């Protein structure tokens, strides 16, 4: 058993099972999650016999990056080889005083969005809470000079809401202000292709994390072509669920919209998006498509991208164009793909 990925309260239970007090469990949580320490020998304020009993029962393990590739724009892709030899990646993206980590929740992905390279590799398995939290701990360990990941986005490999239990467990550890990693929920964003029951459930967890919707089209006709998931929950059902997602004052729902030449980038598409999001506290991120070999799409020309953005801005929608980071290292959105085994 790996204790990384257990809730602080579960670490307290474990301490009791090992014949110690709950306090020892809290100390253990502090070492792992707050200090990022995984070496039992270094946990100096824990009694030696407790550490020995713990070592017999469990391991304290954080995945080691097998490879770290730096991009010219400053982002870094971390590739992890997991216990079963499968590979996942996380991407560290610096931006002014922010340092955002994009984490994966599954090995591969089964949703087959047509513009996404990860979708091409198919679904292999869900990640455990330990493997999700482990990506953040590993990234923080890699950083030097007291630096720490400041924001976390669940936009890496896989669909977070399709791995619901592990996602929520990881979110609880990441946001636990006392004994977890202590991230403000406002600095965490969960991105989904639109699994409506998952969105509703997440809203009820009271986690207060940001929600991002991979929308990519405002009509069912185009969206179903791009994203087969739209046949299960169409645009109308999706937006109705989003309208009910609880938001704190000033919090918004993010909408991701990858711009594909002559597919979803016309002025009429922009106006449809405006109508769809009327009354939603929304922020739209336009992502000009990142080409990959064999892709059936192309990036629109710059004037078309800017014209699309103008229509949204004129309608009062906060809209940014996100020029993806890490394109040259295969780390941009929809490009995360690793060979499943060595
Ligand atoms: S965009 Fe996300 S959900 Fe769609 S195939 Fe890619 S990883 Fe899966």
Structural write-up:
The protein folds into 2 domains: 8-57, Orthogonal Bundle (DNA polymerase, domain 1), CATH 1.10.150; 65-329, Alpha-Beta Barrel (TIM Barrel), CATH 3.20.20.70. A 10-stranded mixed beta sheet has the order 1-2-3-4-7-8-9-10-11-12, with helices on one face. A two-stranded antiparallel sheet has the order 5-6. The chain is built from 11 helices and 12 strands. Helix 1 (8-17) crosses helix 2 (22-34), helix 7 runs parallel beside helix 9 and helix 10 (267-276) runs parallel beside helix 11. The chain has 342 residues and is α/β, with parallel strands linked by helices. The radius of gyration is 21 Å and the shape is elongated. The chain has helices spanning 8-17, 22-34, 48-57, 117-120, 129-142, 164-175, 196-204, 220-226, 235-244, 267-276, 302-314; strands at residues 65-70, 76-81, 87-95, 98-102, 106-108, 123-126, 151-154, 188-192, 210-214, 253-259, 282-288, 318-321. Helices cover 33% and strands 19% of the residues.
Outline the fold blueprint:
Blueprint: H1 8-17, H2 22-34, H3 48-57, E1 65-70, E2 76-81, E3 87-95, E4 98-102, E5 106-108, H4 117-120, E6 123-126, H5 129-142, E7 151-154, H6 164-175, E8 188-192, H7 196-204, E9 210-214, H8 220-226, H9 235-244, E10 253-259, H10 267-276, E11 282-288, H11 302-314, E12 318-321
Parallel strand pairs: 4-7, 7-8, 8-9, 9-10, 10-11, 11-12
Antiparallel strand pairs: 1-2, 2-3, 3-4, 5-6
Helix pairs in contact: 1-2, 5-6, 7-9, 10-11
Bound molecules: iron/sulfur cluster.
Iron/sulfur cluster (SF4) binds next to helix 4.
């Amino acid at each position: 058993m790996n204790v990384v990925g257990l809730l602080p309260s579960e670490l307290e239970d474990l301490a009791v099972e090992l014949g110690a007090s709950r306090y020892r469990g809290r100390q253990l949580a502090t070492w792992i999650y707050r200090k990022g320490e995984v070496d039992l020998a270094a946990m100096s304020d824990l009694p030696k016999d407790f550490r020995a009993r713990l070592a017999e029962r469990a391991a304290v393990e954080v995945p080691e990056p097998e490879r770290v590739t730096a991009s010219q724009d400053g982002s870094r892709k971390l590739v992890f080889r997991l216990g079963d030899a499968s590979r996942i990646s996380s991407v560290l993206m610096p931006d002014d005083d922010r340092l955002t980590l994009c984490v994966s929740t599954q090995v591969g992905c089964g949703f087959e969005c047509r513009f996404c390279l990860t979708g091409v590799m198919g679904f292999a398995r869900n990640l455990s809470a330990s493997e999700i939290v482990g990506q953040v701990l590993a990234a923080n360990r890699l950083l030097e000079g007291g630096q720490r990941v400041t924001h976390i986005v669940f936009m890496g490999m896989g669909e977070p809401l399709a791995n619901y239990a592990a996602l929520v467990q990881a979110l609880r550890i990441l946001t636990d202000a006392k004994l977890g990693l202590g991230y403000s929920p406002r600095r965490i964003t969960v991105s989904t292709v639109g699994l409506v029951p998952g969105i509703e459930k997440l809203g009820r967890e009271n986690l207060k994390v940001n929600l991002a919707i991979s929308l990519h089209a405002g009509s069912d006709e185009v969206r179903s072509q791009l994203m087969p998931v739209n046949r299960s929950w169409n645009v109308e059902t999706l937006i109705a669920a989003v309208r009910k997602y609880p938001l704190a004052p000033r919090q918004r729902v993010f909408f991701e919209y990858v711009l594909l030449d002559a597919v979803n980038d016309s002025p009429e598409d922009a106006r449809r998006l405006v109508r769809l999001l009327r009354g939603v506290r929304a922020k739209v991120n336009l992502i000009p498509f990142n080409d990959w070999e064999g892709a059936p799409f192309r990036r629109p020309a710059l004037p078309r991208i800017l014209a699309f953005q103008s229509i949204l801005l004129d309608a009062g929608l906060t809209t940014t164009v996100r020029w993806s980071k890490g394109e040259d290292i295969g780390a941009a959105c929809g490009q995360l793909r690793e060979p499943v085994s060595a």
